[in-house]
Structures are given as C-alpha cells and as structure tokens.
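Here is one chain, start to finish.
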Amino acid sequence: MSKSTGIGFGRGWDGREAARQAVQQALDALGGNRPALALVFMAQEFSGPEILQTLIGQLGNIPVWGFSTTCPLSADGEQPRSIGVVLLSGSGYKAHVNWLANFAQDVNGAATQFARAVRNQAGLAQGIIQASAQALLLAADGVNGDASQLCETINQMNIHVAGCLASGDYRQGRTICLGGNHAESGALSALFLGGQLRLGLGMGHGWKDTGWSWKVTRVRDMWVQGLDDVAPARAFAAALGYPENEWAFPPLSDYVRLYALGIETGGPEALLLRSPLRMEVDGNLRMNARVPEGQTAHLMVGDPDACLSAARLAAGEALRSLGSAAPLVGLVLIDQAWQALLEGRMDAFFKQVREALPDIPLIGGYTLGQLAWPAPGAPTAQLVNQHVLIALIGEVED
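Its structure:
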C-alpha cells in the first residue's frame, strides 16, 4: 500500500476502542507520514460523537468526513460492527469541510447556503472554501431532507462530485454524518478536495423494468400516496402477487426497497430510480427523495448478475475518469438494496471490483442514495437509488 494512504478497521462492542484500533492501523500503514485528512465509515451500532471524539484525540485538527452505514466495506468484503478509517498523507493535499446542520429542517435554506459556499462568496462555520477545490465528497442524512435539491447547484460546478445518503438505523429515522468536529443526524457534510487531489467516478445498477407501470397520481412531501389513483400497497399487490395488507408489515414492508420506481423524466436519459424506505401501514410509500407527481413510474426489479456486471463497469469507468492521476484509494458506495439482493454473493461483487481495480485500496459502505457529477449517461447531476458508485481519489504530479 502506498504510504500516501493508510486504511484501518476496528471492531467490537466499544465504539471508542474500535475507532482507536482503526486509526492506529491506518497510522501504522502510513509509515510515520502525517495525515492530511480522514475519511470515516461507521457502523450504525456506534455513537457518532464518541467516535469523533476518539478520532480527534488521536489525529488532532485535520479535516474529517464520513457517515454511518449498516455495514462498512473493505476490499475483503463486509466488515460488520466495525469502523473503517482512511488517512491520506501528502504535503500537496488540500481539504476543507463545510457542515450544514440545518439540512433536514430547512432543505431550501441548506441548498442556498451550499450554493453560496460553492461560489466562494460566503464563509460557513469553519471558514471559506478555497477556490482551488478540484473535487467534492458529500454525505447527507439518508432519511430526512431531500438531497436532490442540491443537484441544480452541482450542475453549475466545474469539479467532480461524489455523494451519498447515509445509511444506518433508518427505521428509527437515525442516520449520522461526520464533518469537522460534528457528528449528528439531519445534517449535510461536504468535503472539498484540492491541491494535488483528484476524483474519478463510475456508477451503475442492475435493476430492470418488469413491464408494470403506473401514473404517479398523488404525492405528499416524501410520500407517494397514489399510483393510478390507488394506494401503492394495492398497486404492488396486483403486480407482485402478495395480499395488499401484508405489504405494510415485515418482511414485505422492509423488502419493498428492492422494488424501485423507474421515473420517466421526459429527457433523453434513462429512467430515474427512486426507492422506498418502507411501505407505511396506510399503504403509502415513504421515499427519501421526491417523486414528481404526474409522471409515469415503472416497477423495477433487481437482477443479481446484472448488478455484478454493473459493478465491474463502474470500477472501470472510475479508473478512466481519473485520467492521469495516480489512484490512492477507492470508495465503494453501494445502495442498501444490494445487501439483500446479493446476500451470499458479496464475495462475487468484490471480486469484480478488485479485478477492475487491482492493487488499489478499497473501503466503503452501504448507503440509501448515490449522487455523482459528472455521471456516465446523465447530462445533469441526479440523486439516485439502487446504484453502486465508485469514487477513486487520486494524486496528480506537481
């Protein structure tokens, strides 16, 4: 492993001890080089503030970015109940964290604040973004708020963006973002990368159209309440064969995430995938990104083999996107639906990624949404579900 990159994992019941182990492993991998920034992937079982306090105690005042997930990931596969840490070391590496605590409570206000920060016209809590920023990593609350409202701002940027919606204990509405000296729910954490750092992106999915489609006839905030003027539970029962009243209760209320809605957006791009977090007891779908009323929604189902192929293609696209920069680390951000769809086949997933990205350290986690700009086949930035997003952080020569 390059001494510009150190990765460590810690596991156990005590989050602080797991964090300490992860940081120490990463520091040992750096071989004495001083870290310039830290990326953190935290299992949902741990306390964000406790983890962050441990990180700051060991690393001092360096930029920290990360999020919670149902399960951190490494090049060897799933790492349950663990904390994964990436440390990057280089005198030419620049990083700056901006933290928006009000993302869930005031999405419009947060989007405006984010836009101002991007334009380098206003300072946030921790300072002013440097104009030399070359790339951006975003993590947002995975349940509350609507990160799709950030896309318009991202479209106006001249830097590569990789983003995700934090996963974790989303049934309780609790997902955590980490940024700077903050670790909270309901927030947006943005890490701007500059200097010699660059970002390469690849994204894809293996969900296919079942042939069923409906018009989205009623939407209220983040709930889809009508498909062809009937409750979504009734529409799903007709298409998939289970009784309507069973969709509101486990296991179907949880597995409903596997059945994405492919939204016709009216543009030349492919269907926009939106996945429910759950089916509510009233038969409505709870989403974490808005679904436009009046559009046609296609019922999508996952194909495991297509997902494996998509993973390899995304990894290859990320490497091509990185251009002449030397890859330092690969971030693997997989929609949580893949965890259920590929149960028992995740070894095959990581084999595909490793073969496309040999000798590149890998780390990541399951997420509730993915965002990339520029993204293959998409003319604009879009928040999507059901995708795998692979982001390679690389280094260019002086």
